[in-house]
Fold:
Amino acid sequence: MPPSPPDRATPKGDDSLLIVLHHDATEADLAHVVQRLRDIGADAHVSRGRTRTIISAVGDRIRIQQLPWEAFPGVERTVPVLKPFKFVSREFQSGDSVVQVGGVDVGGGHVTVMAGPCAVESRDQLFRAASAVKKAGAAILRGDAFKPRTSPYSFQGLEEEGLMLLAEAREEFEMPFIAEVLDPRTVELVAQYADMIRIGARNMANFTLLAEVGKQDKPVMLKRGMNATIEEWLHAAEYVYKEGNHQVVLCERGIRTFEDQTRNTLDISAVPVVQRLSHLPIIVDPSHSGGRRDLVAPLTRAAIAVGADGVLIDVHPAPETALVDGAQAILPSEFEVLMDEVRALAAALGRDVIG
Amino acid sequence: MPPSPPDRATPKGDDSLLIVLHHDATEADLAHVVQRLRDIGADAHVSRGRTRTIISAVGDRIRIQQLPWEAFPGVERTVPVLKPFKFVSREFQSGDSVVQVGGVDVGGGHVTVMAGPCAVESRDQLFRAASAVKKAGAAILRGDAFKPRTSPYSFQGLEEEGLMLLAEAREEFEMPFIAEVLDPRTVELVAQYADMIRIGARNMANFTLLAEVGKQDKPVMLKRGMNATIEEWLHAAEYVYKEGNHQVVLCERGIRTFEDQTRNTLDISAVPVVQRLSHLPIIVDPSHSGGRRDLVAPLTRAAIAVGADGVLIDVHPAPETALVDGAQAILPSEFEVLMDEVRALAAALGRDVIG
Amino acid sequence: MPPSPPDRATPKGDDSLLIVLHHDATEADLAHVVQRLRDIGADAHVSRGRTRTIISAVGDRIRIQQLPWEAFPGVERTVPVLKPFKFVSREFQSGDSVVQVGGVDVGGGHVTVMAGPCAVESRDQLFRAASAVKKAGAAILRGDAFKPRTSPYSFQGLEEEGLMLLAEAREEFEMPFIAEVLDPRTVELVAQYADMIRIGARNMANFTLLAEVGKQDKPVMLKRGMNATIEEWLHAAEYVYKEGNHQVVLCERGIRTFEDQTRNTLDISAVPVVQRLSHLPIIVDPSHSGGRRDLVAPLTRAAIAVGADGVLIDVHPAPETALVDGAQAILPSEFEVLMDEVRALAAALGRDVIG
Amino acid sequence: MPPSPPDRATPKGDDSLLIVLHHDATEADLAHVVQRLRDIGADAHVSRGRTRTIISAVGDRIRIQQLPWEAFPGVERTVPVLKPFKFVSREFQSGDSVVQVGGVDVGGGHVTVMAGPCAVESRDQLFRAASAVKKAGAAILRGDAFKPRTSPYSFQGLEEEGLMLLAEAREEFEMPFIAEVLDPRTVELVAQYADMIRIGARNMANFTLLAEVGKQDKPVMLKRGMNATIEEWLHAAEYVYKEGNHQVVLCERGIRTFEDQTRNTLDISAVPVVQRLSHLPIIVDPSHSGGRRDLVAPLTRAAIAVGADGVLIDVHPAPETALVDGAQAILPSEFEVLMDEVRALAAALGRDVIG
Structure:
């Protein structure tokens, strides 16, 4: 059980910010900054070097970091000492968080495989996929009922009917399911059906949606925005966490770069970097990062070997007919072979695969 | 008056897609692709080269582009011939669109300056800023009542009270105003007060929000997402346009790159590139792209010279006390000097400044 | 033995380029392009669609791709059908190349570990490192005598003295070594001592250097430039290959992105992407990509699992005292543990570790 | 006359580096860092905050910044206080540098236009271009005799013959010329003919070449690498400067981003950012950044308006026949119209155009 943050409280301050003055800043510039810090109840430690004066601001980091110091005369730049997130950090909680999804653990050293079709298209398609992934050893079913499509003309999902099919599949195959939410107005609907709700990459910085999800009592998977730094991603997780929902799992799915052989560039280093900064579990999506079926197996292997807590994989019984992202879905038969590799790699590293 | 697209219609097809086969693709692979095209009512023109066979698919581009061709055996890659957007393209409408914002033109060769505080903080702050920008020659007032903040602990805006203050300032200073929308649930509220509603960079791919805004009868400014290609941005504009709202203005505000001296990298080339691809007006935000007060004037000058239809500038009577983005706001006195430069540059290029 | 390309020959042409005309291109524009193609001995297949005419140019791809088609009236854009590289492609040679480095294989399904200090600093430092990596199971020693340093004030390497120490270590520990070349004027010197010469990321597009290296009879490792696409990287390999040196190994070492938690973003997907496009071996540098000691082990594991032919690792007996890149070097004791993981992962995937 | 840096001297130290310790660093960790600083003759100012201890290192910044502090136990990260460059900074010299190129000023508030063909292809082509740009008002002729080509099969330049033609054109049209150097072995040759030597974007971090150029007594133009941060670019300029060549002009030519409508993304903000950090002149290359003929005019206008000291423009009498980069060259007639706009914009901003 993680220590509970005070409900919507402002974290107490610490060493917050270094304010570096220009080499030609005046004494008045310095006094001005110091006075402004005192106005907001913060301490200022002034350190005069040969060419630079540095003010170390100590106090409530939120109040301090909110002021536009770079707009003050004589200020060259500021350097935050503490990260902008707190509750999701290793400093706040040193041990790993484990998130329970309908009885299945995510985190804590296990490997949890989530698989299924990108979008629910029909009962038949979903059940064929679910049956196959269950048999091959997946622990959680994926399948979306609401799809964010770049084109206004594309298939947008089966909506509530899709959620009902997923719930039916859950009973049939005895595996919890995860589904995406897109709209603050349908968060409750999705949360009512799903075992885990997912915030997609496009919505990672949709604070309206984050706030709604933060109020639900369901585990949340937060995908990294394709343009988000790791710090911003953890910041978004903090948003959800602070609203009261501590069951957050992160999912790396690639960032946008100049390389165009892959849809996005999977930032595999993000896994160990996040594990050092945060106690939240982190998994990898090898399907959407590459956008190519032939990359799913090697990227899944890399994810397991790098130490991710699991993977999220698109499996479709007939990718050619998929209404969404067919080019990246693998076949049930390919998934079966891949699960053998996942188990072999996990065993080689002394980890167990759930399911 | 732009030609009206059929309400929520699917555009009729044309030459849509080139499907390039692998050098070792079989005749069966070829036949399979051709059959699948015929299944969806499209024509297939097959061109056999020495090492590659290329299929040119002609028909409904939406249906054609939706199929996961890369998942077909023997397919190497696909090359879209037509852009994924249609109604916002120069091919659909060759002449420039002009959008009217409370009686003020945006587009059509004029230069329209929008200025004011990033966030409405108080009646006094707003009115001091509005009075100053009006006097210096701005045509439209900016000011937000809802703010998307990276941190859950930051100031989130005055909400409806802010909108009422903006409406009051509109009367007082006789200038229409633009304000941001964040949440599909408050789109109607903002649209009720504002003369133009703005979709911020973080929400450019928030299709839920785009759809709501597309149903309003108010001009929309669509900022470019910081990770969006120009094509994706025009695609998002198509989303709004197709829902029935044709009064769309684009706003370039910088993209995310590795350079860290500026908050984002202003993509100044996007202005002429967009003007070639689309008939929509395009303006530039020199404040949020750089994130630095000292860059606002040079980037504004660049925007006017490159041919933008206007600029959107943060002006704050006391940047040091700003609750949001103070580091990039310029003072009313700086704005006054800048407006002189804007007028001189516009005159040198034979353009007029509205207001 | 790979098939030999004709010495400095121009590859014979094939289907080379699609030239897409604007929707408003005239018949004269079309005739002009076709004539120009004929002028250079190429064929033009014209395909008229409903809104676009597409010319498929067949012939010598070099001559065709060199012409500035986008500068021709009526041309919208061009789409290369064939990649800009040929001899390093899977089409030219379908089987994997294996490169021999002083008797050690790189490629062909084996895992080859190269390790040692980033820079040779002294006999003692080099020998301690070499002894340790040999004992732990590395197959090839790394160590540089010439260093490209961002700062003109930094340590630039021991130069020839460093090469002599490396040659001495080779005898002592019975392992071939790899060293970097920076300057076309010292290529012969390095090639005279080293078993494999390395072109660093900063020099990937230094064609002067590539040409010199292409004339040597020593295996070459070509690191990916931090801003290079995979296609450009293979293009650089083609440069070396075509000069007559076919013993080329690629090394992925991260690309520049907006993420700043790591020095560069390791593009782990590049490994399977390259393996599909090219027959050349590819290894991964987990030390320079992350720039952080704590990432070396997880990234090495990811590299092995994704299917790389090996890794290149910085090991230093006392990283704190390293003159170059100490922050990323691991200790001999850490390397020993890591080699156990490498062997376990390779075994799990049915691969063997050389050495 | 700028103050002269001591020849190849190490700059004297100042406040150099902040070393931030982990929240759980021990007293021994702290003592270790302090001792190591003293070992190299530096002072350590220790500031203990509530959760972080920060060590401010004062002394020789080169020696201090070279140590791998992140490899020390207990160190979280370091923050450089002083920039890695010194002689090219505004702190070293507050007034603008003006560089003389064959009697023509670059910098100091003037606008200097350099124009001509990308590559010298023949006497006729060069002379037609030179005659046209001279007549339209360009001050310096551009034209390259050595070309760095991505493909080993492309035209590589006329070499010395090209330089002789340029020298002939200089006499004929009375304008100095600028040409690129690629290889340290031909630097002297190019410097012997040209009035200004250029280091291309691909070679910005080719320190071997920078060192050679730094020894010449000819003005140098240093293009920004397409993956270089502004700090790294100034660092490269420092490299040249410190070798004794102070006649350095910077040239912004776009950086690599995910946007693919343009070859590179012109970072127009780099102009004012550099002008604040450095005293060196800075110009813009609107031809190579966009890679598109239709963008040359708008980007040139943006460059002048943003405050650049000049532009470098590809002009070709027959772009369709250009052997290099024809797609971006403008016609003499287009250049003439553009020069009128340049003069109008410069006049509007109170600046004069040289030539």
About this structure: The interface with chain B takes residues 14-15, 18, 20, 23, 45, 47, 49-52, 54, 56, 58, 79, 81-82, 91, 256-258, 260 of chain C (CB under 8 Å). Confidence is low (pLDDT under 50) at residues 1-12 of chain C.
